[in-house]
Every structure is written in C-alpha cells, then in structure tokens.
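Handout, section 4.2: multi-component inputs.
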Amino acid sequence: MFSWELLANAVVAGLLLGGFYAAVSLGIGLIFGLLDIANIAQPAFLVAGAYGSFVLNEAWGVDPIVTGVLLTPVFYLIGAGVYRVYYGSFERRGEESLRGLVFFFGLLFIIEVSLSLKYGVDYRLVQAEYIGRSIEVAGVGVAFRLLIPAVIGVAMTAALYLFLGRTFYGRAIMAVSQDQAALRLMGADPVKIKTIAFGIGIAAASLAGALLITITPVVPSSDREYIGRMFAITVLGGMGSIGGTLVAGVILGVSESLMATFFGPSWAPAVSFGILLLVLAVRPAGLFGR
Amino acid sequence: MTWVLIAATTMACVLAGGGAFTARAADPIKIGFGMALTGGLAGNGQGALLAMQIWKDDVNKAGGLLGRPVELVYYDDQTNPSTVPGLYTKLLDVDKVDFVVSGYGTNLIAPAMPLVMERKLLFMGLFGLGNNEKYKYSRYFQISPGGPHPTRSFSEGFFELAAKQNPRPKTVALVGDDAEFPQNALVGAREHVKRLGFQTVYDKTYPPNTVDYTPIARAIKATNADIVFVASYPPGSTGMILAAQEVGLEPKMFGGGMVGLHFTSLLTKLGPKLNGIVDYGFWVPEPTMKFPGIEAFLQKYQPAAVKANVDPLGFYLPPWAYANMQVLGKAIEATKGLDQQKLADYIHANEFDTIVGKVKFGADGEWAKDRTVAIQFQGIKGNDVEQFKHPGRQVVLYPDQYKSGNLIYPYAAARK
Amino acid sequence: MARMGRALLVGGAVIAAGILFASLKLNPYVYFAGYVILQYVVIATAWNILGGYGGYVNFGTPAFFAMGAYTAVFLILSLRPPLFVLIVAGGLVAALLGLGIGYLTLRLRGVFFSIATLALSVVLQTIIVNWEFVGGSRGLSVIRPSEPPFGSYVKFLFAVMVALAVLSVLAARFIEQSWIGRGLAALRDNEEAAECMGVPTLRLKLFATTVSGFLLGVAGAPFPYYVTFIEPNSAFALDYAVNALAMPMIGGTTSWVGPVLGAVLLGSAQQVAIVTISSEMNLFIVGVVLVAFVVLAPEGILGLLRRLRGH
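Output:
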C-alpha cells in the first residue's frame, strides 16, 4: 500500500538514519580513507563508546550525547596509543597489509569480549528526556531519538571537513595521505600527524557510539553489524572524501528505510551490502573518490 | 568472574545451611548439563544456573536424594549448538555423570537429542520448542508452559481476548524478528487469526539487527490495523514500543509475543511506556499464581542474583529451571533408584507439585496442558524496580484460571 | 616428483592410522574433540593458501564454511546422497563462491577483497535466514544415517575428517612447492612488480580463491551431521573467522606446517578451555594471543623456531 505520506516518512527516516550512519563512518573514513589503514576494529570502538555513554548515563544521569562528547578526549588518547603500537609493529617495518589487518581483527575481538565479560550480554539502553518523543513537520513525524543523532552526525561531518580543509593539522593529514615524503621535507613528522588522525578517528567512533545507544539498545556483539556498514559507506562514498561519507551514509539510510517500509525489512541488510559489492564491481573509487 | 561469584555464593549457602550436610563418604549423584553462560542467551542461562544451584542446595540441606548428596557438573555451551555434542560426551564419558539435563532453549537441546537417544537416557529439557517432534523419544520431558502446542499457546490469550471485545476488532497486523522464537510465535498467531476470523492486513518480518523501527511502525500505522501483534526479541521489543510511540501508532490492542519485557533492565528502562501492552507471561507475582514454594524460591534467588550480576527479579526462566530439577528429584525419590527407564515411566504417569504449580506431561514429553498466560502491563509509574515485585503491574487476563484483573481496552485507555 | 610420491605415501599412512584410530574403542569424547581440531586443520590450511601464500586476507571464512554446511543440508533434505557426495558438492559451491568474490575484486587491491568477504558473510547469512527450506532462522534438526561404519557416526566423521585434513595439507604442500606457490609469493610481496615480471597474477588470484573456498566448503559439509542441528548463527559463527586467521598466524603462514601447528595447538587449547574456564574468556585469550603473535612474532611459531635454529 503506497501513499505519498508513507514515502515522505520513509525518506525522512532514511535521511535521519543516514546522518547517523555518516557519524558512524567518519572515523573509518579518516583512518581507512585517508590514512589507508584498514582498521577492522573501528566498530568495536563504536560499541565501546556506546558502553562508555551507558556507564556515565546510568551512574550520573548525564545526557548520552554529552557523555559522548566528554569521552572523546579519552578515546582520542586510546586511538593515539593504538596507532603507536600499529606503527611500531607494522608500518615501520613495511609489513602493513596482512599483519595489520589481523592485528585489528584481534583487537576487535579483545574489545568485544572484554565488554561482554564486564557488562554481560543484556541489552543496554540510556535514558534521556527526548527518547520516545517526536514532532510533526508538514505531515511527517520526526523522532527526536533519530533527529538529534542525525544533526550531530552532520555537524561532525562538517567539523571534520573544515578541520581537514582549514587547519594546519588538518591539511597536514591530507598531505600525509597523499605524499609522505613531501610532508617530511616540509618539516612535519608524518608519524605524529598520523597519530593525531588516528586518534581523531577513534574519538569520532566513540561519539558515534553515544549516538548509537541513544537510538537503539546495544550489546557487545553489536559491532559485527557495523563492520560491513562502515566499510560499505566509506567505499561507496569514495576513499578520502569526507563529504562522500555523508552522501553514502544517506544513500544507505534511505535505501534501508525504503526497503523496510515497502518491501519488508528482512532484506535490508543484503541490500546494503549488495550496494557495496556492486560499487566494488563497477566503480571501486566510489562516488567521490580520488 | 560471574561463575566465581555464583560458586562462592553457593558455598556460602551450603556452609550456612549448617549441620544437614555432613561430610559423608557417600557417593554423590552427579547431574550434568551445558548451559548458556556466555553468548546470546546468557542473560537467561545464568539465571537458570543460579536457580538450579539453589535447588541443589535445598535438596542437599534436606538430606540429598536417596541419602546421597547431589552434585551439578556443568559447562558453558556459549549459546553455540556445535559445542553441545562434545560437551555432553565429556559429561557422560569422562565426568561419568548419572543424569544429563538440557541447557536452555531449542537450539541447545536439539544437538543433544541423538546422543541421549543413543544411550537411552532420561532427558529433561528446558524451554525447548518442538525438540521431540522428529524423534518422538519416550524419555524426553520438557519444562515450559507451552504445553502440547507451544507455538499456539504464546498468542492464544492475546487473540482470545481480542475476540471477546465489543465491538469486535477486525484487522490484524503481524510483525516479528527473523529468529527462532518470534517465527514460531507468528506461526501460532496466524493460526489464531484464521480460526477467529480476523483479517490480516500486514504480515512481515525484519532482520534481527534492525536499527530503526520507525519505518516498520509507520507502515503498520498506515494499514490502520485494529490489532498489532509483535513477536520479538529484546531489541525488537524495545524498538517497536519506542517506534510506536514516536509515530503515534495506537491500535486498539498492542503487544503479542515480546521477549524481554520480563527482564529487569527493560522493565525499568521502559517503565510507564509499557502500560497497556498485552504480552505473554509464564509467571508473574499476581495473587492467582502463588504456587507453593515460589515465594520461598524468589526470596533465595533475588539476593543471590544481585550478587551474581544476573537479572534480579527472576520471574522468567529461573522458576522453571528450578521446577525442572524438582521433577527429576521427586522422580528419583519416588522410584528409589536411578534407572532411566523406570524414571521415565514414572514421570509420564504422574503429576508433580512444583513451584510453578502442578505439572503433568503428555505423551511426547510436552506438558499435557499449557499454562502460558496473557498479561497486560498496568499502572506502572516511574522506573523503579520494586513496584514489579508486587501484584498489579503485570495483570493476568487469560486463562480464567489465573485471571487477576481486567483488560483495559482499547490500548489508548491504558496509556492515560 | 619423487617428493610428491613420498608425500602421498605419508598422507596415505596417516589416513590409515586415522581409520585404525576410529575403529578403536576409545573414550567417545576423544572423537568429538578430535573432529573439531581436525576440522580446524582443514580450515586453517584452506585459509592459508589464500592468506599466507597469496597475502589476501579472507575475513569471510564463515560464509564459505556455512555454504558447505548448507549445501549439505539442502542435499540431505532433498536427495539424501552419501556423505562423499555432500562433501564434494559443498566444496564445489564454496569454490564457486570463492571464484565469484575473486572475480569481483580482481583488479582491486587486497584490502577490498577483505572488505568484500566481510560483506559476503552478511549477505549470505541474510539469504539463508530467509530460506525456509533449510530451516531459515529457526534452524532444523538433521538426522544422521543409520548403520554407520565404526558403530558410531561421529567416529566415522572423525575418520573422514582425518582424510580431509590429509588431503588439504597435501594440496597446500603441492601448491606451495609448485610454480603456483612461487607465483603467489611474488603476488604477496609486491603485486605490481609481479605483474611486470609476467606472473599471471589475475589467474593465480582466482585459482587461490577458488581452491581456498573449495576446501573451506569441504570442511563445512559434514558439520550438519556432526551437530545434528543447523541454524545460521552457529554456522556463520565469527569463531571460524577469528580462528581461521589466528591458527595460521600463530603457526606460521609461509609453509603448510604452520596452519597444522596452529590448528592443533590453538584448537586443543580451546577444547580444553571449553571444559575448564568460562568460555568467553577463551575467545578473549584467542584475541590476545593473536595480537601478541602478530605484534611480537609475526612469522608464527615456525618463524621463532627458525630463528632459534639459526642462532
């Protein structure tokens, strides 16, 4: 049963979901898209961020989004630390590919299982005033639970875009992704730049985690649902394009939403990854890739 | 960490029990099983284990079975069916247990069936759906209030109540997770819909990792269904309830087979948002369900659960895990022996008094009569957990035998 | 060729030993645990053909394994052919899958292949979940054939798995010592340079993904008869993905010995852990050991042994 109202609602829900997906993928867009490090553990940091938010929300009733922001420095440091280990063990020796991937996969496991051991497998939620409320805008219902994360997602994308384009360190990151030698010649230390970038990527994941637990309950194994989504969005958007991540996130969100509304949700995940496989086959550089 | 705490608590209970447990040279009766202590079903599995340990302590305090102490030998099956054959072989051939009982849930019971059948063992199952259908094994018994037709009993109360309303609702929307229990519940729901002459206007499933339920809720709202039946696991239950509120989905009757709404974490987090939802139930603290021994059990269980970091209310699975062991224990005492065949015959032929009421088994080991009830959440205020320990929040509406209140209909009226 | 002959003889002897072992009346638990460890020998060896030799990391091992298992289920439900047919069919379907993924990501960098394998697992699991005939999300019980050799079906499966392990190791050894293996090594070290030197990289890639897929499917085909209950979550379990990675990494990726070593060590350790400590710790330890090896001993145990001998 088709109706314009249903379509409008599905599209809007998809757009909001897309904003959230963009937030989720920003970190990997930076780390994989720009630094070319296939950090498979990124979704585990996402879930770890969600749990961090849960802990603070449960203990002191702090709004989940605020907890996300508060935790970003902590995760930045963790990210920087992880990169140092990665660099020392692999990049310096020039053996990234196979071993680096395996390293991150092991890390993913360690994080997921640690969360499971510490917090158990019960679904965790957060409490906030606006969860469960919605507003009507021109006949379309908009849930705050989705709206606020989407807005933050767009804000994060914009912030990262501006950072990369306008600030010294941001441009250094762009430079390091293109030509390390030239960067060195200009007096900047590529390792330091990459550490900063990796740290930012992990911090982004943790903030996205706070958004995640606002939208839906979380368990430690939730990371597995996002491994594919994150990489799908980064590849679809194009490696190295932050704006592309947002566009790809929206495409994924809208297609999942339309699928769920009109054809039944059971095929939604396959559709998302079908898109990924299609992109890889047809235009691996993605929509806005270099 | 958790099992260390459970073991420590058990030890404390045993020591506190005092003189009944004397250090005899008596050979213990060993009961072995796998249990979901990690993985997807661990939330319930850990509670079940705790209940079984409480049973063991109760039995040992009273002198054991046939004068011998009872010992539980268990391993974590990780909610992974492929571990079960190995685990049960170890229990039987290395640990040499006298009896095996099942883990929690259909998927963990199924792989053990060929093994127990090969060795002609008595097998007590816990919350398994249709495990004996293909095998028709005569020494299998299942504890779950689902009765002989479990897929139907989950939703029977829901639809019977709907059919009694005046004016009679006409249209139904069915939706659920793509996963074991919800799919089974939906099969039963469709049978009731057909039998009672309702019209289905929506019948879809969603994948278990769905993030956003608002498109689904919206699609259902667009059908203007009178009744909305949701069969879901916890994320779906939460998601659909929240999404329904956000899109303003207010059918005349809302609920169904929503798992998770009996767990403390969701009861407290969702709180008043649950008011008006009609769900299935197994045991709730209503005056009509005060079976002998249940209160004593909960008094022991609840503090231990808090210590062990397990669901502190313990209404869902733990009483049944305890009752499962009660049946086994009573049968052993009654037949005065450990003969698997004699025990199976005895269990088939008799009715047992357990903390979940009188239990009698049918020919294929399922309960002769089902006892799934339909409850409605009413009068929940705020998010504290204590209110759920008292009657009046999860009111039983069906069957009449356990009815403790009236259905507030339509759904919107309960939300005021 | 004499070396090949000798290897076949050794292989044959091992299979004979396996059959003998299965006919003994040992504690049944040995066969159950042994089956799982042997299964991992096949999985680790299969993974290593593509990952260790070729440098292409497959994160989607569960997809191939499950395809082998579900092909077997499909055939069991429809035709009930003998086990041998199930194994070959499972292997072929998984091989096709490997070929497909290889072809799809043919001209892309290795990392895209890895991402595609991740996506593959999700897509396949969704398809299986929606396929009622093989049980869908509810799963279904599989009844073992009656009158098994050795008196118990699991003993029979054990012997079969010994044979499969030997066959996969022989295949890996053959590849490793042939021009294919040398080509794959060139591919792994520097794909562009290899192409410039005339190595048929594309064909080698496809060969490796197909063979690796075939063996993974072969490992999965007897699974339904082992567990007697198939459902998507356990068939697609992430355990297979992590172990397929960890076992070769720990054992050593450059030779066929590494995966066998890793599978036996890690597999046995896990079987012991399942019946001693809490099992999720087991996974935690695998992760820690994996990371430790990858960081500190990237060439695995074989590499450590080599270094020790060198000093």
